[in-house]
Design goal:
Length: 125
Amino acid sequence: MGLLDTLLGHAGAKSADKINQDFGALLAPGETVQRAFGEIRDLIVFTDRRLILVDKQGVTGRKTEFLSLPYRSIVMFSLETAGHFDLEAELRLWVSGQPNPIVRHLGRSAGAEDIIALLAQNSPR
């Protein structure tokens, strides 16, 4: 179902080694990718220091936004689903200093539970 999930826009786990290679120039010395989840063109990347949201824009996807969120700046997060048959979930991240949350739409079977678990694991204590 990996190809079908990708075509339908459902996020799925990506190879951390591949993401490490692709993001090498964006990572700080010694920073490593823990996990990554991708949709058709967008990525949610968890490193040992921060969360990186990658948003490819436009028809060709050449324009790319990289949003880097240190874990300490994420003050609250939520996941909203309508139930088992909902086709997508909505991830909201509230960041200190910002009045509105950052919203990302995730497809069903998107690894949403894994994403929430990683956010909880990396939250400052």
